[in-house]
Amino acid sequence: MESLGKTHQKELDDDLSPKPITLSKYSNRVELKTLLERSDRGAGLVGKRLVIGGWVKSCRAVKKDSPPPPVVGDPSPSSGGDQSHTTANIRCTEIIQSKMNIFRRFFDVLSGGGGKTYPIFDKTELAGQKAPPPPEYVFYFLISDGSSVSSLQVVVDSALSTVPATQLMALGTCIVAEGVLRLPLAASTKHVIELEAEKLLHVGVVDPEKYPLSKKQLPLHMLRDYSHFRPRTTTVGSVTRVHSALTLASHTFLQYHGFLYVQVPVITTTRFGEMFRVTTLLGKTDNKEEKKPPVKEKDGFSIDTVKAAIKEKTRLIDHLKRSDSNREAVVAAVHDLKKTSDLASQLEMKQNSKSGTTLVKSEKLDFSKDFFGRDTYLTASGRFHLESYASALGKVYTFGPRFVADKIDNARHLAEMWNVETEMAFSELDDAMDCADEYFKFLCKYILENRQEDMKFISKRVDKTITTRLEATASSSLLRFSYTEAINLLQKATARKFETKPEWGVALTTEHLSYLTDEIYKGPVIIHSYPKVAKPFYVRLNDDKKTVAAFDLVVPKVGVVITGSQNEERFEVLNARIGEFGFTREKFEWYLDLRRHGTVKHSGISLSMEHMLLFATGLPDIKDAIPFPRSWGNANN
């Protein structure tokens, strides 16, 4: 099992051997990780001709015959741009942001662009005299293609470009270049190799006035408004590659240990807890009354006018976020937008009341006429359906989205999260805890061994202690203790005041779990044998009749990463538990059938991939651990 964590490093041992550069599959370009993640950082490839493609992270222009510029700085974590300063060279962001006419004219002349504000020729040429040729420059780009945290310096002669220099040098511009790898000419550069471009095969320009990453470094919480662009930032790019590694590691671990991958439905008829209903009935009405005109307020404003104002104020907020406006200005604009949105809601309510339109309660809908002919919901767990396959195939797992309709908005909760779930026949609670323990530590070890460059960057930019914490976790044994023992420990903390008093029978809160992992044990723990009222009805009832065979794997700073349980295999007990929770047995008949016919002891686990990513990277908010976060009141993109 130890060798599994090193599967993607073997080729690096042969980096210095002479062999052709591997092209990106399904493309004629070379991925930058092929060059920059070698043990020699690409030095053995000097003189090779190749094509690379990527996006501009930073850029400098140097007049020909001048010394090459100093090293281009590391890209900033959330802007995707260069944050180093120099007085001898022209920075990309300085050119874009500059309002000085002389720079605008200079770059229009340099690129041959037909600027409307400034003529290309000066007065001497208009008088019949030959104007001096525009100066020739060399551009030094820092290019990233997303395959690695490292970027490649690409040297481009201004004569190669037909695009105006202000567009070519803008952050976010996509460039595909063909050239030859060489050693950097600048003695002070930190780059081992650079590409001297001979052709520009493609230039995908951006609009610097609208592109959000070109203006200023944005904090992670503001980047959520631009979730379609944020993977271009260095931090989100690294987090995404770690996320991908965790997914691959999950499949690797489970497949190695004999689990079969099974797809389970996202739409389910089984409901427990707060779930999203799936229906096509809403909006359908038999009301054939004549449509009435929109309601107007006394001041003459209609709902359409207010909605138009909302759009304009939304654009203003976007502009303020992209510009150098202070936080107070943004907050004031957001507050103004909220007031306008509230007014729109009031007008809509009045309009609906006039037209007879009302909200339809679910109990008044006839779901027999719905798409599926019955009540359906977005699933909150895949383990229910996995049990049927575990009862035939032994060990199975799945990986997919899970949905919870709790109206909670905090740094640890999402409405949609992706879970890795397993189910094992002939398995009990201790077996499930062993599986969770080994799986969790394997993930920690895997990313340390296979995403070294990204973890170095994350350790530098996000959490300086993350590598040490992961190493300690991967090599240690996780302490296990019961819920009752946890309550006793919390009750002994007399100097600590908890919002929820720790008494037997109450659910352990985030505050309780944080105290146990962050302050008492200072590391991950497994808590098992919870009160039966604190866990779902299908968890196996213990012999004491008060607790059930369930556990949580809890980690510092994050909370619960893995939940697990031995589920009830006894028909009579499960049937009684369904009644205790007040559920309709009819919807659980198929689930009870698994106990009627060939029942077997079984257990399983469920890992929240987003919570695991928080622990693996040190990110403070779960909304930055998923590409497109869905939470209460938010579903952008």
TrEMBL record:
Keywords in alphabetical order: Aminoacyl-tRNA synthetase, ATP-binding, Ligase, Nucleotide-binding, Protein biosynthesis
Biased composition (Low complexity): 73-82
Ranges where the record places region Disordered: 1-20, 63-86
Enzyme Commission numbers on file: 6.1.1.22
Any one GO molecular-function label of the UniProt entry: ligase activity
Gene3D superfamilies referenced in this protein's UniProt entry, alphabetically: Bira Bifunctional Protein, Domain 2
Cited InterPro entries: Aa-tRNA-synt_II, aa-tRNA-synth_II/BPL/LPL, Asn-tRNA-ligase
SUPFAM superfamilies documented for this protein: Class II aaRS and biotin synthetases
Domain Aminoacyl-tRNA synthetase class II (D/K/N): 368-630
Pfam families per record: tRNA-synt_2
Organism domain of life: Eukaryota
Similarity section: Belongs to the class-II aminoacyl-tRNA synthetase family.
Designated name of the protein: asparagine--tRNA ligase
